[in-house]
């Protein structure tokens, strides 16, 4: 198990290094002068030179990269010139919105998808299977921002059960914050649940054709016990893979939803930083999201070994 973890951690570190090079290089080759974009077209040459010096744009490319990576290694993500605040403080302030939103969305997605996938697999070719997968196909095809607008109209405008947008904060209690995030979480969860349900069904169908499942049934075990105890556990490898990918997508891909619901999360922060050409913020947030994806994949790999002990020796 130790060798298994060491190998996965090594792969994660290499991924972070490669990602840092790619992120830094891509943002550096973008057209436009960040200092000019921040100060405006009427800025004097002296002001532009001073701003470039403050932003570290006059240093050689490799020096800037090493300073940036070295700073992140000790928790210093730099300072935003737009917000006049350390980037790490901006990230911490917005993460209290994006992280709970991603967690709630993943919980909702999993709670919907796995029972639906098992239900469809147990009734392969029947009406229940056809209807379930038909609804799932619609969920995959329809974009989540359309779900978001529909949910706002029904639950916020028509029924007036939840706020249409904004975030009340956690100061008013957990329920107040969860209530503000419920509609965007549902909008994010429904399309992901549709994908996960289809994957769960496919994985279950593959396992249900194995000899040990037929043996369990021949011994007289209840069908529910065979499905949930034997089939589901052996079908969890692809399901865990999709769940790990979905959490990364939910955490990193909330720009549209956060703008629809006017949530002050990481997605909205990245959008604002890009429009304002605040590259240090974009770089810091993107690298933090990359690191979160690496950590999530490591957790998924460990769960693989827990679900299937045979993988521990690889």
UniProtKB/TrEMBL annotation:
> Which residues are in the ABC transmembrane type-1 domain?
95-304
Supply the InterPro entries for this chain: BPD_transp_1_N, MetI-like, MetI-like_sf
Question: Which UniProt keywords are present, listed alphabetically?
Answer: Cell membrane, Membrane, Transmembrane, Transmembrane helix, Transport
Q: Which Gene3D superfamilies match?
A: MetI-like
Q: Output one GO MF annotation.
A: dipeptide transmembrane transporter activity
| GO CC terms in record | plasma membrane
Parts of the chain that traverse the membrane: 9-30, 99-122, 134-161, 181-199, 231-257, 285-307
What membrane topology does the annotation report for this chain? Multi-pass membrane protein
Instruction: Name the major location.
Output: membrane
Entry's localization field: Cell membrane
Which PROSITE patterns does this UniProt record tie to the protein? ABC_TM1 (PS50928)
Family membership: Belongs to the binding-protein-dependent transport system permease family.
| Protein name, entry field | Peptide/nickel transport system permease protein
Q: Which organism is it from?
A: Aquamicrobium aerolatum DSM 21857
Q: What is the lineage of its organism?
A: Bacteria, Pseudomonadati, Pseudomonadota, Alphaproteobacteria, Hyphomicrobiales
């Amino acid at each position: 198990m130790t060798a298994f973890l060491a190998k996965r951690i090594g792969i994660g570190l290499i991924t972070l290094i490669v990602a840092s090079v790619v992120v830094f290089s891509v943002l550096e080759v973008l057209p436009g002068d960040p200092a000019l974009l921040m100060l405006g077209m009427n800025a004097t040459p002296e002001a532009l030179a001073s701003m470039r010096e403050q932003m570290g744009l006059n240093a050689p490319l490799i020096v800037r990269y090493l300073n940036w990576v070295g700073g992140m290694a000790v928790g210093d993500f730099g300072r935003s010139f737009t917000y006049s605040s350390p980037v790490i403080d901006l990230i911490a302030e917005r993460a209290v919105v994006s992280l709970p939103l991603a967690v709630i969305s993943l919980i909702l997605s999993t709670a919907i998808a796995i029972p639906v996938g098992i239900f469809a697999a147990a009734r392969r070719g029947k009406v229940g299977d056809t209807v379930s997968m038909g609804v799932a196909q619609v969920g995959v095809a329809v974009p989540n921002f359309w779900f978001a607008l529909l949910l706002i109209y029904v639950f916020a405008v028509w029924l007036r059960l939840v706020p249409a947008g904004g975030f009340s904060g956690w100061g008013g209690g957990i329920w107040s914050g969860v209530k503000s995030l419920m509609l965007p979480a549902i909008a994010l969860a429904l399309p992901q649940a549709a994908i996960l349900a289809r994957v769960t069904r496919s994985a279950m169908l593959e396992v249900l054709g194995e000899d040990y499942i037929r043996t369990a049934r021949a011994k007289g075990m209840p069908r529910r016990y065979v499905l949930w105890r034997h089939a589901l556990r052996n079908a969890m490898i692809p399901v865990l893979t999709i769940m790990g990918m979905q959490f990364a997508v939910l955490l990193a891909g909330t720009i549209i939803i956060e703008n629809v619901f006017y949530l002050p999360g990481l997605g909205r922060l990245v959008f604002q930083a890009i429009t304002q050409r605040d590259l240090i913020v974009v770089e810091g947030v993107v690298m933090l999201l990359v690191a979160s994806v690496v950590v999530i994949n490591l957790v998924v790999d460990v769960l693989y070994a827990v679900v299937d002990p045979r993988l521990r020796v690889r």
